[in-house]
Amino acid sequence: MYALQKSIKLNHVRYDVRGRVAAEAEKLAGQGIDILKLNIGNPAHFGFEAPELIRKSVTEKLSQAVAYSDSRGLLSARLAIADYCKAKKIPNVSPDDVYTGNGVSELIAITMQGLLNHGDEILVPAPDYPLWTAAVTVAGGTAVHYICDEQAEWNPDISDIKKKITARTKGLVIINPNNPTGALYPREILEQIVEIARQNRLIIFADEIYDRLVMDGHEHISVASLAPDLLVVTMNGLSKSHIICGFRCGWMSLSGDKTGAQDYIDGLTLLSSMRLCSNVPSQLAIEEALKSSGGTDASLLPGGRLYEQRNYITEALNSIPGVSAVKPKGALYIFPRLDAGRFHIKDDEKFALDFLRDKHVLMVHGTGFNWKQPDHFRIVYLPEINVLKTAMDSLGDFLTYYRQ
Ligand code: PLP
Predict the structure, then answer these.
(1) Is the confidence at residue 174, as pLDDT, over 70?
(2) What is the pLDDT of residues 57-109, one digit of tens each?
(3) Taking 90 as the threshold, does the pLDDT of residue 7 lie above it?
(4) What is the mean pLDDT of the segment spanning 336-365?
(5) Alpha-carbon dihedral angle through residues 310, 314, 316, 321, given to the nearest 10 degrees
(6) pLDDT of residue 295
(7) N or C: which end of the chain has fewer CB within 10 A?
(8) How far is the centre of ligand 1, averaged over its atoms, from the C-alpha of 209 (Å)?
(9) Ligand 1 shell residues, CB under 6 Å
């Protein structure tokens, strides 16, 4: 008989995106109930297709991918990524500074494992993509959340960041464009964040997986381009822009000033080597993929699916009494607010569960993104407008009678 307990660190980890509400949805689906899933940013589930060229370049070269690659990845892929960094004005990135990963997810975990000792702190946005908080916790560190301000288009609250720095703070995470809010940070905000990192010698971790999913003619600025004198770890990948989530294809680049960081870099190289290498067939997609901005391009323009769906969902949410939402500028998500006084919601996971059981629509509650108050939720607006409309009609109706 085993007497096994999970690691004590895991008792503090939440990953609600695939948690209790999602499990209940699976159970209902198993009973033959149709569930409308607005919970995961998986474009291939909603009729978006990976570009033909990408699929071809992988299948045609598959026989070259049967061996392990360099633990950081194929040189051809890393050269393409280094060129991409150059195009984004990310300074001082050679192929040796690039590591491919089984999705950005794996690299988030590696960067935290390689850095954190017990009690070290990382500044993480609230709301966040919850893998960041989970990865910090699993690595033995403490995620300290700084507020992103809904009143200021969900931009990071600079004074809150300053207040939360301590002698134990080692790094700061920026998710831009943001999951779950859809915010895109302007240059002035990024510059202020860089200045804080500069003054406190913090590593910046920039999760830019949505950098090619930007609308309304806005330009995405890589924060690393503003910080040539700092160590910046920039993450990116093809899951969303090229609709190949299942390939597990991501990378990170180490840019800027690396003096004093050799020990950390050696740790990252060790952790990278311990998994031998990332999935080689998916690395074959990178060179071809980075020649274009992705399979979602046309979709981001007026008349395109993502653009029109974003407009629809924003208007539909704002027309429901007691609901308001900031219009996203990028990514695939919107993070609406519920009027807490009106609906008396004390437990937003219960709200998501009740809505699921009643209306068969699955979405993720805001506290699942480390947002403290139970007054938000996240919607993935990937489905076609007619499907989103069904979901919004259901939500509007549900909120006429739902009170906790
Ligand atoms: N970072 C953010 C902000 C995400 O939203 C996601 C996935 O939704 C990831 C990282 C993980 O992406 P990948 O598929 O590359 O592991």
Answers:
(1) yes
(2) 889 999 888 899 999 999 999 999 999 999 999 999 999 999 999 999 999 99
(3) no
(4) 95
(5) 160
(6) 66
(7) N
(8) 6
(9) 41, 103-105, 129, 175, 179, 207, 209, 237, 239, 245, 250
Largest CA distance in the chain: 62
Among 104, 212, 283, 332, say which to mutate for ligand 1: greatest number of ligand atoms within 8 Å of CB. Answer: 104
Domain 2-49+298-401 maps to which CATH number in 3.40.50.2000, 3.30.1380.10, 3.30.530.20, 3.90.1150.10?
Answer: 3.90.1150.10
pTM > 0.70: yes or no: yes
Distance in Å, CA 343 to ligand 1 centroid: 32
CATH classification number, 52-291, choose in 3.30.70.660, 2.60.200.30, 3.10.560.10, 3.40.640.10 = 3.40.640.10
Give the pLDDT confidence score for residue 44 in this predicted structure.
Answer: 86
What are the boundaries of each domain within the chain? 2-49+298-401, 52-291
Are residues 347 and 373 in contact, defined by beta-carbon separation less than 8 angstroms? no
Q: What's the Cα-to-Cα distance from 342 to each of 71, 274, 318, rounded to whole Å?
A: 54, 52, 15
